[in-house]
Amino acid sequence: MPEQPSEKSVQKMRTFVEKYCEKSGTVTHPVEGIAEEVIQGLARYVDDIGRPLCPCRFYPDKEEEIKHRTWICACDDMQIYKYCHCLLFVNEEGLPITEHLPKDHEGLKIYGLVKDPTPDKGRALRHKAEERELDRKARPS
Ligand code: SF4
Q1: CATH class of domain segment(s) 7-138
Q2: pLDDT at 134
Q3: pTM for this prediction
Q4: Which residues line ligand 1 (CB under 6 A)?
């Protein structure tokens, strides 16, 4: 992956982030540099493989990974639970929203309960939360 992403991809991701904040009722992290770092990582993936894979994870096979859309920004956790692992889409205090996460999700363990200030916004795939819960319960323990 190149060190510096192209200005075109950075601009594309900045615009996406701005619009997605509006749509999801979140803001970018208040500490300067955090959002920019994530945006640069997303833009590098756009340059490298054509899709904005989440830059906060490791992928043994990136080409294989983009066949699923699980970790393409905005990832499943964001669209289902409004939880951003990278602290890109957060509340005004800079915390990721954890209110909608399943009880055993790492986000709840790390940050505790963080309420969703705009529950009527975002979570386009919220119906999948229930599906996932049913799948989880059906699995043998
Ligand atoms: S955790 Fe999800 S929403 Fe946050 S930057 Fe990564 S892909 Fe995007």
Answers
A1: alpha beta
A2: 84
A3: 0.93
A4: 38, 54, 56, 71, 73-75, 77-78, 84-86, 88-89
